Amino acid sequence: MKVLKLLSCMLLICSTACSKNDPDSTKTEEQPKLAANFVKGADVSWVTEMETQGIKFYNNAGAQQDLFQILKDKGMNTIRLRVWVNPANGWCNTDDLVAKALRAKNMGLGILLDFHYSDSWADPGQQNKPAAWSSQDITALKTSVYDHTVAVMTALKNKGITPAWVQVGNETNDGMLWDEGRASKNMKNFAELIQSGYTAIKSVSSTSKVIVHISNGYDNSLFRWIFDGLKNNGTQWDVIGMSLYPTTANWASLNSQCLSNMNDMVARYGKEVMVCEVGMEATEAAICKAFLDDIILKTNSVSNGKGLGVLYWEPECYNSWKGYKLGAFDASGKPTVAMDAFLIK
Q1: β-strand partners of 311
Q2: pTM
Q3: Is 171 a catalytic site residue?
């Protein structure tokens, strides 16, 4: 009996020692790295135009699939879509927007709506008024912003779609609807245009969070100038949106500056922040993945849990679609390794 007890003790000691040396025996469920509601997404506003021209998309196994499914399988939970007032070719008008938003909704993806308030691109270098608004003064422009915003939001609502986030303007570094709404000429006008959009959005969907979106997320002085101006004019907004397009050489330093800026925005205005656009050369996929891994974790680390998420701009572009080379799909129409950054949970 003593011998049996001794053997039993020896076996127990051996078992314990082995379990400490065997990583499989001590496995625990991996802890999540991101907040449960962290936004991982992409702007794919070109998708319907691309499909009409015969462009197809493939998963990493080489099987043709719907782009939205490929993105979802890569860990994305949100689709960003732009809307123009009266674009010449119809793409990104209200009907095209609704069609894409329905696809996103049916795929179980959240929606970020991006109002450009133009017939074409609005960005730091151009904020052109829609042709139909070209002769309007600031009073009429505020009404047009309100009416257009309500009309688009209502078109979505009629299809059972409620955008979780809505941008009032796109990369409005110097305001929008130039020259009446150019911030460097009249910050008050710009602030009132933002307020018109904000009020219109909330009148249709009180739960949608309103974003004011500025490029160069590393440029703290630019952000302080814009948002001090909005605050001083009594403007309302919910989220501070940023763009970030670093190079392969400077992404680490720009990511650090962007994080500092995000934390400053939270401390200064008490608002949430989101990186609404990112991109890097499609041919530099490995470096792009490192950039994305880092900015996703940095955004998630923003103080008080106010870093909402990161979205890639038009990753589905390949073979230099429309000359754009910052996508994240390879020449065969499959996601590059950069897209694996969004698989993080």
Answers
A1: 41
A2: 0.91
A3: yes
